[in-house]
């Protein structure tokens, strides 16, 4: 079986309806180019009738010669009016997009309640609007809003609406589970009937309100739908849209459908992370296929089986979607985890050596103190490199001091840092929004003159947890920091009874890890100007 | 249709295999009590054979009379040995749990590769181990690991393994999609065959590697499975386990199965958020049914339709799962909650008064800033008492200052606090293990002379979370503090871009809340000695 399917991405339109997701025209251009390179067939860029930001996006994207069909979104015309006088349809046809999706009502309840018009007028709105768009020279697609709820309430009317869209010349008729409440069995049954009765290419557009958007999409494909609408990372209104990052690999690797090339599928993890960075949304570590933990193994028994054959606990090879296997180290796991981690890093490991025994004892001791390396890969890597000789000590900390003060409603935070780097002592002071920010600023200020690449690194998450809960403010705390340089993401840990010291430790590890790469080519630090040495900055 | 189903929660066992999820014995007790109140039928508490933390949990939970069947997890015995000599099985039977789940192999590939034994020996391991557990007086459940992959590779062997488990007296045979790679159609077909051929109650245990764990569970139920294994919020290894927070409402509200009572289902959102707080894992805003955005409406057209009839864009009534609609124009549900909370506290509340409108506006504004009162009842109570006149302003803070320094490996932390109490200014300085401890010490030192009861209060938990993840060290953080006086426990919240300020805020609320009780009988502060006024302590 190898039926070609059509992938329709609506990250830039329906995806931006998600809470906390807001994309500038520039963001949208960047994402469109990534999607195009991955081989999606349609890119829905926005609603040029609803806001000027989308008009700007359509203007700017024209310069890029997209392979995908650029698509603009709008609604059927207003009730009791002419398409020629509809300002939204005008914007749509002037957008420069090659295709237009028009959403229209197919649920009688919505026609009465939301539109407050007659069933006949709604059919006229569908027919005339799609014909208008098609006559303007664009490809027309019909988004049948609430189709499944509509079909359950009044199948004849819902099907009549589709027939109107087909008669008007729609290239695709897309069945939408707008409220996300339909179950896979219902989807399969209803799509099967539509495919039998409506002689037009059928698409599917689902929402995740029951955590079934992916399953509903697959059920529709099994029933004969040929266009899949969804978003990267499942962004979208309420609980989100169907997640293309889960649908694409399942269709291609498990169901035998051709969607994109094997090479394009290998960019999936990168695309998912890139979009999450631009959208400024934290990607869940456990996201299927593309998440950082999607192929991470924690339990000792699992890890020892994985070492024998990765198929034992992996449903696909992670490389097929551009992800990778990770072995997590935790108190539950044994020494085989730690050593395979070291081997993964390319270190020369002899499991029986004194070195190996020492590093395992050290990690156990740290875990006993409250360190948790499963969420702090980078700290573990530094520990292993320090042990097996794969790291360089780039700087040492001589002292630091934090002052936080609130007087007259005014907060002030300063950090003073004294470090030794390249044989010199650097002494810096910086302000910050809080103590960690101030420490981070002071430390960068000291290092940036030697390692300008450090400018690109920033902290993306910061978590604190009390370990000994019997006395929270006097007990130990564990700090986890996540950092990124826009390409990679890494996690570090610090533990202390003092939250400042624990944060400092995790921060130092984050910077040391970033510097591992920067000093690979050039062990001698580069000096790029500014005063340094025993100088107050 | 109304078939009763059995809900088996494994948040405390398989859930803790998730990356970044680490629960203390005390955390586990708290979660078990919540799950029990929600009416789940089995609570799998952990693996007493693998770590001492789980043994402690089973010891401590014995004091609570759970309605649910407490279940311990373990593996079939080691190859070529006797159950009587298996230390893990020994721990299992000594755990005090009423039931035991034993995981065993049903995939021939795993028997050869991971266990490295014969197919016959594996069948003996299954039979003897389950019989051993059953003979010890416990109910025995069989987790058929990799059953679906095993069935696809060698159906006869996979079914033979189930038959052995049945012959040994397993109360349930649970089919596991351990690697999470199976599709709903396959699940339906294979479960149907098992139900036909194996005369025992069948359960389903799925993983989310294809974002299909919920759909696969529902497919198994449609095929005749009667026990559902899953975790709260879908926590679990790699991409997680089947999410009970999505499965439970779908089964009950859409598929007509009885699982828990309607009242218990209404606690679902609270349970989901409580567990995410304890696990210190950020809950995705778009999580189905229980997420903060699950019933949030952003688009203008959607909002106006919702105002006419909420069914237009909501697949269920949010109240059925204890969640609420969020609409930008007005939060009617929220408002009535807040007012009924105030009435609960015995405050004289007129919903239409200016006072009520002001306090609701204030709470909305704070929530917008990142405050979350669901996990901070005491802060909410103070806010309401301040508004309706049920509190006394016992002290005000004039200024505070924190200094943290590390020189020569030595950490020093000091806090200086200036407060006004009983018409006098008190100025104190104290050391601490960290900044929060130092602030706490300085504040107590200032107040204890007036309110000696403050000595009995201490902080039991302290959590920090970044809210704006774009720039973690410069973004906002939310601090949650839990305090106790050995009789009661209360939670307070603070939000700021500065972790010290947010901590200070939560700390002040904690102390103010404690003082509410102490001043009830005696509004005039008691003076118990020591110098005070404008004095340096």
From TrEMBL, chains A, B:
Keyword Secreted attributed: no
Keyword Transferase in annotation: yes
Pathway terms, separated by semicolons: Amino-acid biosynthesis; L-isoleucine biosynthesis; 2-oxobutanoate from pyruvate: step 1/3
UniProt keywords, alphabetically: Amino-acid biosynthesis, Branched-chain amino acid biosynthesis, Isoleucine biosynthesis, Transferase
Cited SUPFAM superfamilies: 2-isopropylmalate synthase LeuA, allosteric (dimerisation) domain, Aldolase
Highest taxon listed in the record's lineage: Bacteria
Catalysed reaction, written as an equation: pyruvate + acetyl-CoA + H2O = (3R)-citramalate + CoA + H(+)
GO molecular function: (R)-citramalate synthase activity; 2-isopropylmalate synthase activity
GO biological process: isoleucine biosynthetic process; L-leucine biosynthetic process
EC number: 2.3.3.21
A Pfam short name: HCS_D2
Domain Pyruvate carboxyltransferase, first and last residues per copy: 5-266
Catalytic EC class: transferase
Similarity comment text for this entry: Belongs to the alpha-IPM synthase/homocitrate synthase family.
NCBIfam families for this protein: citramal_synth (TIGR00977)
Descriptive protein name: Citramalate synthase
């Amino acid at each position: 079986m190898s039926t070609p399917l059509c992938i329709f991405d609506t990250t830039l339109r329906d995806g931006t309806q998600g809470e906390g997701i807001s994309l500038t025209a520039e963001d949208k251009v960047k994402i469109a180019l990534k999607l195009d390179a991955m081989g999606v067939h349609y890119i829905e860029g926005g609603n040029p009738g609803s806001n000027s930001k989308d008009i700007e996006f359509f203007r700017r994207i024209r310069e890029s010669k997209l392979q995908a069909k650029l698509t603009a979104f709008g609604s059927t015309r207003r009730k009791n009016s002419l398409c020629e006088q509809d300002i939204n349809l005008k914007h749509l046809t002037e957008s420069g997009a090659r295709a237009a999706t028009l959403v229209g009502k197919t649920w009688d309840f919505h026609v009465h309640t939301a539109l407050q018009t007659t069933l006949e007028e709604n059919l006229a709105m569908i027919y005339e609007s799609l014909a208008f768009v098609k006559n303007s020279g664009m490809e027309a697609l019909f988004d049948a809003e609430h189709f499944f709820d509509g079909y359950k309430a009044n199948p004849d009317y819902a099907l009549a609406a589709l027939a109107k869209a087909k008669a008007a010349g729609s290239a695709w008729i897309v069945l939408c589970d707008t409220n996300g409440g339909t179950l896979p069995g219902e989807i399969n049954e209803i799509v099967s009937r539509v495919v039998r009765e409506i002689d037009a290419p059928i698409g599917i557009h689902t929402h995740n309100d029951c955590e079934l958007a992916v399953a509903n999409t697959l059920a529709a494909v099994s029933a004969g739908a040929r266009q899949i609408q969804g978003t990267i990372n499942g962004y979208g209104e309420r609980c989100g849209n169907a997640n293309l990052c889960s649908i694409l690999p399942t269709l291609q690797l498990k169901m035998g459908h051709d969607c994109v090339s094997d090479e394009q599928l290998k960019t999936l993890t990168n695309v998912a992370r890139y979009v999450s960075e631009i959208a400024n949304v934290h990607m869940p570590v456990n996201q299927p296929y593309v998440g950082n933990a999607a192929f991470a193994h924690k339990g000792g028994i699992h890890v020892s089986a994985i070492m024998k054959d990765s198929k034992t606990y992996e449903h696909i090879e992670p490389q097929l979607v551009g992800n990778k296997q990770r072995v997590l180290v935790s108190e539950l796991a044994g020494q085989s985890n730690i050593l395979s981690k070291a081997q993964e890093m390319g270190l020369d490991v002899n499991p029986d050596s004194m070195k190996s025994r020492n590093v395992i004892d050290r990690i156990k001791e740290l875990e006993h103190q409250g360190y948790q390396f499963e969420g702090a890969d980078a700290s573990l890597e530094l520990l292993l490199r320090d042990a097996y000789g794969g790291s360089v000590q780039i700087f040492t900390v001589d002292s630091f001091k934090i002052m936080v003060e609130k007087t007259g409603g005014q907060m002030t935070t300063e950090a003073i840092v004294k470090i030794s780097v390249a044989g010199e002592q650097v002494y810096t002071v910086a302000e910050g929004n809080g103590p960690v920010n101030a420490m981070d600023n002071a430390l960068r200020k000291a290092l940036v003159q030697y390692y300008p690449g450090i400018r690109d690194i920033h902290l993306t998450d910061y978590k604190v947890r009390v370990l000994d809960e019997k006395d929270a403010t006097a007990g130990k705390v564990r700090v986890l920091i996540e950092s990124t340089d826009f390409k990679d993401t890494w996690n570090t840990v610090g533990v202390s009874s003092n939250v400042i010291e624990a944060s400092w430790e995790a921060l130092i590890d984050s910077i040391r890890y970033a510097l591992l790469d920067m000093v690979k080519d050039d062990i001698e630090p580069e000096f790029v100007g500014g005063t340094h040495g025993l100088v107050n900055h």
